[in-house]
Structures are given as C-alpha cells and as structure tokens.
C-alpha cells in the first residue's frame, strides 16, 4: 500500500569482535537500512578479560587490545592519517560489551527497545 512504512521492520543482530574490513561491510549496512532492516552490531570486546586470563592470547605477545584502543591507518596523497578505529564505523547502531556476564541483559534491553520502536510506529 501507499501508507507509511514502519521503520526497521526487521532487526539483524550481528555478534562479532568488531574487527573487519569496514569498506566491504559499509554497502551491506546501507542495503539493509534501505530494506527497513536494522543491522545492530554487538561487539564482544573481551580485552579486559584476556588481560586477567593468561591462557587467552590475542594479538602480538599474547596481548589483546580493546576495540577502543585500535587505530585505523590510511594514506591520502602520500600523507599518513591515523584515526580511532570506531570513528568511521559503518554501523549506525552498535553496542560494545566488555563483560560477557552482561551480554544477556544487554541483548534483552536491545530487543525491548526495538519492540518499543516498532510499536510506536
């Protein structure tokens, strides 16, 4: 029909460590948004837990880095640009989970907010 469409008729939960090729993901995110799909990225940032648990290794020398500490390096016109990794993040909606114990609570809050958004439309 020609009536108003509901914003974000579907929600897409993506759980990741947040480290991926942003240039490749950006068109997928735009396509989802154009289809009234809400792509929500849940970044599991367990760098703090890895520091406490010596058996987990990530990155060089067994040190895991938080997604908040990562930098993005690009070269434009021979000039090196360094910016925070999350500065030009392709997902308009994302949440960073640093304590896995809170993941169920965060996911339920996210779904509750989405249901409220859909019901209000």
Report the portion of residues in β strands: 25-35%
Largest sheet: 3 strands, parallel
Question: How far apart lie the N and C ends?
Answer: 16 Å
Portion in helices: 25-40%
Shape: flat
Derived structural class: alpha/beta
Secondary-structure element string: EHEHEEEH
- Give, in spatial order, the strands making up the sheet with the most strands: 1-2-5
Poorly predicted runs of 5 or more residues: 54-59
Oligomeric state of the chains present here: single chain
Rg calc: 18 Å
SS field, number of helical segments: 3
Total DSSP E strands: 5
User: What's the average pLDDT?
Assistant: 83
Describe this structure in words.
This protein has helices at 22-34, 47-52, 103-120, and strands spanning 10-16, 37-44, 71-76, 79-84, 93-97. By secondary structure, the protein is an alpha/beta fold. Strands 1-2-5 form a three-stranded parallel sheet, sandwiched between helices. Strands 3-4 form a two-stranded antiparallel ribbon. The longest helix is centred in the last third of the chain and has 18 residues, at 103-120. It starts with 9 loop residues before the first strand and ends with a helix. Mean pLDDT is 83; it is low at 54-59.
């Amino acid at each position: 029909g020609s009536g108003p469409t509901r914003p974000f008729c579907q929600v897409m939960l993506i759980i990741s460590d947040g480290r991926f090729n942003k240039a490749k993901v950006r068109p997928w995110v735009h396509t989802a948004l154009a289809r009234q799909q809400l792509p929500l990225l849940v970044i599991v940032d367990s760098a703090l837990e890895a520091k406490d648990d010596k058996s987990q290794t990530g990155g060089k020398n067994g040190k895991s880095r938080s997604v908040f500490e990562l930098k993005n390096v690009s070269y434009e016109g021979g000039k090196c640009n360094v910016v925070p990794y999350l500065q030009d993040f392709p997902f308009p909606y994302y949440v960073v989970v640093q304590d896995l114990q809170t993941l169920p609570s965060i996911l339920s809050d996210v779904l509750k907010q989405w249901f409220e958004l859909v019901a209000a439309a």
